[in-house]
Amino acid sequence: MLYLLLLLVLLLVCGLWWRSARIQTQFLQQLTQALLQQSQQRTPLILNNIPPVFEPLSRALQELLKQLPANNGRDRLTGLPNRVGFKRAMVPLMPLTAGAFVLLDVHRFRFINDLFGFAFGDQLLVAFAERLKQLHHSPRFIARLDGDEFLLLFDEPMDESALNGLKGRLQVPFKIQDTLVSLKLHLGALDLERFHTDISQMLRRLDLALKKARRAQDGLACYAEGDDVAQLRELKIINSLPKALKSGQLYLVYQPKFSIKAQGCDQLEALIRWDHPELGRLSPAEFIPLAEYAGAIGLVSHWALEQALAQQQRWYAEGLRVRVAVNLSAGDLENLALVEEVQDRLAHYDLPGEALALEITEGSLMNNLHQAGAMLIRLRALGIKVAIDDFGTGHSSLAYLKHLPVDEVKIDRSFLLGMENDESARQILHTSIKLARQLGFEVTVEGVETQNQLRTLKAMGADRIQGLLIASPMQAPELESARERLQLPRQAEA
Ligand code: C2E
Ligand code: CA
Ligand code: CA
């Protein structure tokens, strides 16, 4: 009996040993084949069912392959042509006089690497490259120019609607290591029938189109005549910003926010102005997005906060007690030291949190909900009020906003446009105001220009209005002269 048992155990051990030896042999065969294929065709090294004992070896091989110099004009990870390979392949195709180039990249790909690790990012890029190869209207040529930048050559023209369709097909979520990842893409296109030049210029123009796409709401843009000139202007603006901040070319104007209940202005919004020595008066609608794009918005916001608080210190000393709202951008909410900076500046000017409000757009909050939410809670604890700016222009619903630590919702002036003669536009506005108030927010409507609009908004329950009907934005001395008319709160020195 004992012998029989021993024999059984021996058989079992042999079986297991044989099975694991078979798995290991199979893996070694697979590895040999993959390495051969990699060295001949520069395809990615993809290995499946790696036995645990071989995991360190396959990791070391992957690392080693990544470090080999780029060869043959091919990208080692995806097997696609790289920038060198692309330029080489275009030589016999020139001149390209029909179809389109599309350059695309992934919004914040770096964050995917940071969040899930580089191995995950690599797998995602390989899967993305495969998807490009399998597109229904397959491109004539595909290349990976840079980290997350891919270039496609199509035989047909690509207008915005074709680009949109392409974007939709490419954005279907990926499943990587049992994790579902959705990508947001930017696509820039160059129409070859209109803009066929040499490869270097075409690449420069495609870069411009992609830059435009990164700033567009829908993430799409086609290169247009004059974009090069526009880029020169943009470069000039970006480059002259640091000097402008130091040399007094920028200043703040203040637009009152009128409380319907109090029948007076209880807040001012600080809006930035720039008198450029060469380009004349620049609209913040032009240079703020550029500063955001160039990563310089922190400088602007810091400057605006500083100016507004310095002004508030003077007004407080004169007994003018009115909250001033400063606009913040998405980039500011990524600054982890924001709360400390605000607190420090308030202390520096000896002002309470009640002197300040901050306006942030819904988009910038949604980008970064967790971190931004935590910062807003701390800012509100200082007595600062927080408003959601341009409400209705993004994708969030009021029901979603109810979880956010904000005090006020500013309804964008586009809501007013159809109000007078479009019953459904009126309904939407009315419902938004009602819902926002039910959720406990104060509601301000922007861009109010007529008495008629004011009457309607009052009936709809809005708390405040802002717009040319009350006052246009003005500099501090002008505002002080209009103090009586605007019913700005006055308080005697304690
Ligand atoms: P916003 O925060 O929505 O500011 C309101 C804009 O509407 C201002 O334009 C204001 O002058 C304009 N406006 C006010 N009342 C009326 C009206 O009755 N009718 C019309 N048609 N327009 C009205 P502005 O000053 O050109 O500012 C444009 C945008 O630039 C602002 O939009 C804000 O997003 C940004 N901005 C301005 N100053 C700053 C700043 O200091 N920092 C940041 N981050 N952004 C700023
Ligand atoms: Ca604002
Ligand atoms: Ca606004």
Descriptive account of the structure:
The protein is of the alpha/beta class and 494 residues long. It folds into two domains: 83-225, Reverse transcriptase/Diguanylate cyclase domain (Alpha-Beta Plaits, 2-Layer Sandwich); 231-493, EAL domain (TIM Barrel, Alpha-Beta Barrel), CATH 3.20.20.450. Helices cover 48% and strands 18% of the residues. It has helices at 2-41, 55-67, 83-90, 109-116, 118-133, 160-170, 199-215, 227-246, 284-293, 297-317, 338-348, 362-366, 369-381, 398-401, 414-417, 423-438, 451-460, 476-481, 483-486; strands at 100-106, 141-146, 149-154, 174-176, 179-181, 185-191, 220-222, 250-259, 264-276, 280-282, 323-327, 356-361, 385-391, 408-411, 442-445, 464-465. The strands form three sheets. The chain has an eight-stranded mixed beta barrel with strand order 8-9-11-12-13-14-15-16. One calcium ion binds at residues 269, 327, 359, 389.
Helix-strand layout with pairing:
Blueprint: H1 2-41, H2 55-67, H3 83-90, E1 100-106, H4 109-116, H5 118-133, E2 141-146, E3 149-154, H6 160-170, E4 174-176, E5 179-181, E6 185-191, H7 199-215, E7 220-222, H8 227-246, E8 250-259, E9 264-276, E10 280-282, H9 284-293, H10 297-317, E11 323-327, H11 338-348, E12 356-361, H12 362-366, H13 369-381, E13 385-391, H14 398-401, E14 408-411, H15 414-417, H16 423-438, E15 442-445, H17 451-460, E16 464-465, H18 476-481, H19 483-486
Parallel strand pairs: 6-7, 9-11, 11-12, 12-13, 13-14, 14-15, 15-16
Antiparallel strand pairs: 1-3, 1-6, 2-3, 4-5, 8-9, 8-16, 9-10
Helix pairs in contact: 4-5, 11-13
Residues 389-390, 410, 412, 446 line the site of one calcium ion (CA).
